[in-house]
Each structure stands twice: as C-alpha cells, then as structure tokens.
Specification:
It is built from 12 helices and 20 strands. The chain is of the alpha/beta class and 407 residues long. It has 2 domains: 92-265, Alanine racemase (TIM Barrel, Alpha-Beta Barrel), CATH 3.20.20.10; 272-391, Lyase, Ornithine Decarboxylase, Chain A, domain 1, CATH 2.40.37. A hairpin with a 4-residue loop joins strand 13 and strand 14 (290-294). The protein starts with a strand and ends in a 9-residue tail after the last helix. The structure holds ligand LLP. Ligand LLP binds next to helix 10 and helix 11. The site of ligand LLP has 20 residues, from helix 10 and helix 11.
Length: 407
Amino acid sequence: MHVEDLAISDIAKRIPTPFYCYSSAAIASNYKRYSDAFSGLDSLICYAVKANSNQAILATLAQLGAGADTVSEGEIRRALAAGIAPEKIVFAGVGKSEQEIQYALEQGILQFNVESEPELERISRLAEQSNTTARISIRVNPDVEAKTHAKITTGKAENKFGINIDLAPALYAKAASLPGIEVTGVDVHIGSQLVDLEPFSHAFAKVAQLVRDLKDQGILISVIDIGGGLGINYGEQSSEPDIVAYAEHAQTHLAELGCKIIIEPGRSMVGNAGVLVTKVEYVKVGQVRTFVILDAAMNDLIRPSMYDAYHHIATVEQKQATATYDIVGPVCETGDTFAKNREIGECAEGDLIAIMGAGAYGAVMASHYNSRLNAPEVLVKGQEYSIIRERIDFDALLSMDSLPNWL
Ligand code: LLP
C-alpha cells in the first residue's frame, strides 16, 4: 500500500506507529473537483478548518487558492499563519466570545456567520466600539432532514444552530438597522456526511426564496454561503455524492440571484486523503471472538466510538488468507473498538494496518486519554514526506500539568 510514490511500510520503518499519513496530491485533486464543479458560479471555497487544522494542510490548500471556514480564534490564527488571507476567512459557530469577535474584527475577516440575535448585538457593539463595521451573514436553519448521524445533523429546528428561516426576515431587518453591522449574506449548513443530495437541494431552494423575500424587503444579499457537508465513501457505501451534481443543485437554485457562493467543505476535501497507520500488537483469541489489538486507539481516532462510524481497514501488505476479527485499541474501554466482525487479511503480531478515510476529523479530535502520546502526522508529496506534527515525548506530556503549592 502506497501514499503517492511512497510505500507505507517504508515510512513506518522510520516513524513508529501509530501515525497519520496524508497525501498532498489527493487534497489537491479534491480541491480541483470543487473548483471545477463551481467554476460556472462566482465562488469561494472556504475549507472547513475543523476537519484537519494542521498548518501544512492549510498551507497546501492556501496555495491552491482556498479560503477558510473557521469556528474559533485558534482556527483563525492557524488559517492566517498558513497564509490564508483574512479576506478569505469566514467565522462561524454558536458561541463566539467577545475576545474572539474582537480578534476577528481586528484581522478584517471576510464575514461573521451569525447564529443568534444576542450574537448579532454583541458583534455590532464590538464593531462600533472599534469604529468599524462587521460584514455578516445570518445562518438560517431551514428545518430539513439531512439524513445523517444525529450527532452531526445541524439543520433541524431542534438543533442549536442558526435562526429559524421563517424568523430570519425580522432579524435581517434588525441587522440592517444596527450601527456596527453590514449585512452581506445568508448562510446555511445542514449537517455533515450527507450522502443524499436531496436535502441540500431542499435547503438551497429555501435560501433562494429567503434572498428574494429580503430583496422585496429592501435588503440586498450579495453572498450565499451554502456550508459544507458532502459525505465521502468510507467503504461501506458503494458510491459517494457527486460534487458536479451538488454544484448543479447550487446552480439551479442560486445562480439567478447573482450572488457570490461560498462553499465550506471539510471532510470531502481531506477525508479520503489520509490514513491512520497502526500496528498489530496482539492477536487475541477470545471465547467468542478473535481480537486484533492495535497500537492505535480511540484517543487517536474517535469516530468509530463516537458515531459508530465505519472506516475501511486493511493490512498494509496484501495477504492471501482473510479472517474475521474485532479490531480494537489498547484503551481500557469496550468502546475502544474500530470494527466488529470485520473480515480483513489474516493478521499476525507486528503487521501494519491502515485505517482509511482518516484525513478528516481524525487527528483534530485526538486526545491524550490513557496518557497516550499523540499519533504524529506525516504529509507526503510525490516521493517526499515530512513530519507535520511530531509525537510529543513523555516529558512534554507530564509537563502539561503543574502541582499547586500545597502539594
Ligand atoms: N460548515 C459548518 C458550519 C460546519 O459546522 C461544518 C462541520 C462544516 C462546514 C464542514 O462539514 P463537512 O464538509 O466536513 O461535512 N466530527 C464529525 C463531523 C462534525 C462536523 C461539524 N461541522 C465527524 O467526525 O463525523
């Protein structure tokens, strides 16, 4: 198994497992799929930094022309440090703090995606105090069923995100009257890992109607941010949604409005560009199951434990025989399971294993649970590779704590 021109087994000779390994070419190809599909529209691709915020990944995307969709001061700082211009940064999230808003205003970012009335008031007040105005889009909640995992559905009325689309005109009227606010756009994001395009189409139609209604109300919208959410094929489905068809839905509903279209893809930009490379510590024959115990765990990749997510898993070397295992990590929880009853190549101690589709929401969601060191991240480009985040050592891990003076 290779990442671009490098055999994973060769990289693993130099970097102890577990580690994340990403392909620059796969990221570039994903970016190009988006930029080609949306070339008929005035569009800006704002990569959702939360999916993988390593600065080397951000710099790779920045060089291709991407902007950034951010949700915290930390993400804005990362995007700027990686060379993404402030005019290409949008700032979303339901809980923006005063400090974060202030920081974003100082940087002159493209827009705030506003999630509530009190947030709108706060942004206006802070902008006014700084003698500036904040460009805003209001994130509307279209109440559509995204048909994805409940924990990553965001566009239903009961979700914490956005403003009910029926109440949006009133909030836009208020926004237009606030001194620190410049209304520029409408924003929508209905969920993540959507494999069916129909909910997007439904949401786009509702947004288009809102933009027309706002125009009648005298409020002109020049930007429509359609969020992210396009799913990837984790190996369980036979197909994944087609970016061209997705762009066509945007075109059908939104083109005539003459607005700039912002897209916020995260997973579909980097998900299939990364694997988690791990090693078999033990093959344990249990009473009713045989376990492959890896040196990677839920602290490295939490998606299977957290969302019951399916990730394709394969031996790095091709095997003649296959066997069925529960594939687990060493953490002391039954939830530390990557796959149950999974047929893969027959495993032996020391074999390398690749957990696929780990480029998005992998390293960024990792922790040091069980006092495990982080899995380093490696970026490949052609025949070269570079460690883009080191594994910290135990001294660094222990020095994160400090003792109070009474101990
Ligand atoms: N824009 C907004 C406002 C978002 O909330 C998200 C993701 C995105 C864009 C990017 O969505 P994507 O294209 O990646 O689907 N940790 C979860 C996914 C959480 C997604 C949160 N929001 C997982 O591992 O499946």
